[in-house]
Design a protein that fits this description.
Length: 574
């Protein structure tokens, strides 16, 4: 029997991070639930033990059921019957197994039937499920919709829908439209208040909606007549029981086949307002998108883990010229680089998750009581870090996911191009990760703020001041030099951008990548310093990643130094 949690020591380590004690104390309100619920933890050790036990259950279902069904789901896919979605048989079984295990609503409060876990173990479950089947990972990960309701909806709405999510009802976020993809402020699906029925009615079309026929949908719609921008948009919750939304079609996609991507037609669909009007995109959807991007980071890391393992196994078994191909330098170099990218993605994934955990815990506490000044300051700090790290995570993890699956096929040679091996499916699944929930280019637009405001530099300084094992001093010195190079390059771009903001935009990705290589390098250095694990040589991963990052950063610096504002014109295509 396979267990995707127990076979991953790197994942298990993340539960022991020092910040977890603070996260657990905040999430559990110092274990106040222990007298109300017999399954609530009594202390930190009890809480972490609960996380491990639930993740073992999820890991077992992933290894024995979801991964086994993945190929069949990819071949069968979902279909439309009588204007509604019918899942592939394997998808339905996956959902049933997880529902019967009682692990839906993993991060929701116990009063609604949830497990009240922090973000970190929830994100781990997303990684595990995505490693097994990235398409089903979308259906599982859309529990983020429930988190958005938890944060912003009324008690009445939450009391109705949160228990349903904990019981296994699926979710969807209906945002994009035929003429409004990344530009969500162009959304035109109309919401009108019907005085007679005392409800809002939704009319219009949504497109590219993941799990579009889910039981509970969050819908972005225009409430303000005559508006064309974000200020006219509000967020609604729609219940599938009304049967007022038809699935026009399921998109025929390249990958993540098991996840139905739908075009939807709303016809007088009754819906309930979430929060206040006009705040749909400005506040609520932005929070939802950040959660979704964290989920794509988990999905990308899960796919990368699966692809690396497939490539390693094949390289150990495939013999050419009298020996396993893993013994050839070009192959073992590829595998080592792949492993370093997987570990770097995971390190960034859980660093970001921890930041999100702290600020979300304080946010929910602030709705119960007034925060102390120190608590408010901490919430602001962790919120700032989460906002800066989320686009960086989404950018790097999704790009690495595509690179790792590409290399996995290469290691398989011609066999990797055939549907006989899982890497072909993994590569197709990977391709969407740096497109949806904001392309890599849009992540750069968000992440460059971390460069210009100094948030990334501040974190680099904190990482630099930490204590590491002395045998890692050469790598630490390399990261210090990379940081100095980064500071010089940022200053140069800022000087050349005075009166010409296009120059900063043009070099934004290079600056963001420079920052990312340093931050991810420090995270790997920390892990290499803190642990030894028989299954992974973390020192090797840190060594490989930091040296490669140093070379790439120097290349970016040299390119920027030799690029004048006037040079940008040569890239414009009329």
């Amino acid at each position: 029997m396979a267990n995707f949690f127990l076979d991953n020591k790197d994942l298990q380590f993340q539960l022991d991070h020092p910040l977890m004690k603070k996260i657990v104390a905040l999430k559990e309100r110092n274990f106040a639930d222990k007298d109300k619920y017999d399954y609530a933890p009594v202390d930190y050790e009890d809480a972490v033990d609960s996380y491990r036990k639930v993740l073992e259950i999820v890991g077992e279902i992933c290894g024995d059921t979801i991964a086994v069904n993945a190929d069949g789901v990819d071949k069968e896919g979902p279909r439309v019957v009588d204007d509604h979605v019918v899942y592939a048989s394997g998808t339905a079984e996956n959902h049933r197994m997880l529902t019967e295990a009682g692990v839906y609503g993993i991060s929701l409060p116990r009063k609604w039937g949830g497990l009240n876990f922090p973000v970190v173990p929830y994100v781990m479950s997303c990684e595990l499920v995505s490693r097994a089947d990235a398409g089903f990972g979308n259906i599982w990960g859309l529990q983020d919709c429930a988190e958005t309701l938890h944060e912003f909806a009324s008690d009445e709405i939450n009391d109705e829908y949160m228990p349903q999510v904990c019981a296994g009802k699926t979710c969807a976020m209906d945002l994009t439209e035929p003429d409004a993809g990344s530009d969500l402020q162009a959304v035109m699906l109309k919401a009108t208040w019907n005085e007679e029925k005392k409800t809002w009615l939704l009319n219009g079309v949504k497109r590219f909606i993941t799990n579009g026929d889910g039981d509970i949908s969050l819908v972005l719609a225009r409430t303000e007549e005559g508006t064309t921008d974000a200020r006219g948009l509000s967020l609604f919750v729609y219940d599938r029981k009304h049967m007022a939304v038809k699935v026009r079609r399921i998109e025929h996609k390249m990958g993540i086949i098991g996840s139905p991507t739908c075009e939807l037609v709303f016809t007088d669909a009754p819906a309930r307002l979430v929060g206040d009007t006009k705040m749909g995109l400005i506040r609520y959807v932005m929070a939802l998108m950040n959660s979704a991007r964290l989920g794509i980071g988990a999905q990308s890391t899960g796919i990368s883990e699966a692809a690396y393992r497939e490539a390693l196994k094949y390289a150990q078994e495939r013999r050419q010229f009298g020996k396993p191909i893993i013994e050839f330098a070009p192959v073992y170099e590829m595998l080592t680089n792949m492993q370093a990218k997987v570990l770097a993605s995971r390190a960034m994934l859980y660093e970001t998750s921890r930041f999100v955990d702290v600020y979300k815990a304080y946010y929910h506490i602030s709705k119960e009581r007034k925060l102390e000044k120190e608590e408010r300051d901490e919430m602001k700090e962790y919120n700032k870090l989460a906002d800066a790290y989320t686009p960086l995570l989404k950018l790097f993890s999704s790009e690495y996911c595509n690179q790792v699956t590409y290399d996995a096929i290469q290691i398989h040679g011609g066999s990797g191009y055939m549907k006989d091996y899982p890497v072909e499916r993994l590569a197709r699944d990977a391709r969407i990760t740096n497109i949806y929930e904001g392309t890599s280019q849009l992540q750069v637009v968000a992440a460059i703020k971390g460069v210009t405001t100094g948030v990334y530099l501040s974190q680099m300084n904190k990482y630099e001041a930490m204590n590491y094992n002395s045998d890692l001093d050469p790598l630490h010195a390399t990261l210090k030099a990379m940081k100095a190079e980064y500071e010089t390059t940022v200053k140069l771009v800022e000087e050349r951008s005075v009166g010409n903001s296009e120059y900063l935009d043009f070099h934004a990705r290079r600056l963001v990548e420079m920052a990312g290589h340093i931050i991810l390098g420090y995270l790997l250095l920390y892990e290499a310093s803190e642990r030894e694990c028989g299954c992974v040589d973390y020192r090797t991963a840190a060594n490989v990643y930091i040296k490669a990052g140093a070379a790439k950063n120097t290349a970016h610096k040299v390119y920027i130094e030799n690029s004048t504002p006037e040079d940008i014109a040569m890239f414009r295509i009329d």
